[in-house]
Design brief:
Layout lengths: L9 E3 L4 E3 H9 L10 H14 L5 H22 L10 H27 L28 H15 L14 H10 L8 E2 L6 H4 L5 H18 L2 E4 L8 E4 L1
Helix pairs in contact: 1-3, 2-3, 3-4, 6-8
Length: 245
């Protein structure tokens, strides 16, 4: 095998001597007898090329690996009998090998960077470290099983605690009801059903009806106490009527 200044991988076999890419082209064109090509010698020469060339480009080495994989695949097609199984995809295998080479190269670079960094205990020392000084005080913890379980449950409860946010619904207050009734002063000289004075937003919405009725009823009682209106109810659970005094 000859290695030039450009790190070109040349194969030196009994049946062929020259660049690997030319051998691959000749093999694909069936212009060289692959049965006489020794894959073992080819692999040994490729291993020697990668081992000796410590500065070889990773992309170049992967290209040579792809060529060697294709040659091995083509020779296996000649030696192995035909099968109905899925055809072996040499290109995909070569791509996987190239990917593994890149991963190994990245691991090597990262490990070199880590080893060049300052190390704790060798280049960097902790402030206040005990070193060879023996302490004269020792700490002893005395806990029961119940105390350990209780502290553990408190930590888990605190960590898993979630705030519950309950949306605040609109409320028709007594003050809102007083303002609403006073808006009709001058037009309720006769008895008026209290439900007719409830705002439409609190009358038709299902979840607002109760607060609307409660706010208006409480407001009517306050105005009766002030002497502004009169209130009546003919029978129990019937509608409430008011009128201005």
């Amino acid at each position: 095998m000859a290695q030039t200044d450009s790190l070109e991988f040349n194969v030196n076999l009994n049946e062929y001597n020259g660049p690997l890419n030319i051998l691959l082209d000749l093999a694909k064109a069936q212009k060289v007898n692959l049965e006489k090509i020794s894959v073992t010698k080819l692999a040994d020469q490729f291993h020697e090329f990668i081992t000796n060339a410590s500065t070889v480009d990773l992309e170049l080495a992967s290209e040579y690996l792809l060529m060697a994989t294709w040659l091995t695949y083509l020779k296996s097609k000649l030696l192995l009998p035909l099968s109905d199984e899925e055809e072996f995809k040499a290109f995909e295998v070569a791509e996987q090998l190239k990917l593994q080479l890149k991963k190994l190269e990245l691991i090597r670079l990262l490990s070199d960077q880590m080893l060049k960094r300052k190390r704790l205990g060798k280049d960097i020392f902790l402030r206040g470290g005990k070193g060879s000084i023996r302490p004269i005080y020792t700490t002893k913890y005395s806990l029961t099983l119940f105390e350990i379980l209780k502290n553990y449950s408190d930590i888990i409860t605190t960590r898993n605690f979630q705030r519950i946010s309950i949306p605040k619904l609109p409320v028709f207050t007594t003050e809102d009801g007083i303002r609403r009734i006073k808006e009709f002063f001058g037009s309720i000289s006769d008895w008026k059903d209290l439900n007719d004075l409830i705002p439409s937003s609190f009358k038709h919405a299902k979840n607002m009806r109760r607060t609307g009725k409660a706010g208006m009823f409480a407001a009517s009682l306050e105005l009766v106490k002030e002497g502004s209106i009169s209130i009546k109810q003919n029978k129990l659970f019937e509608n409430v009527y008011i009128k201005e005094k």
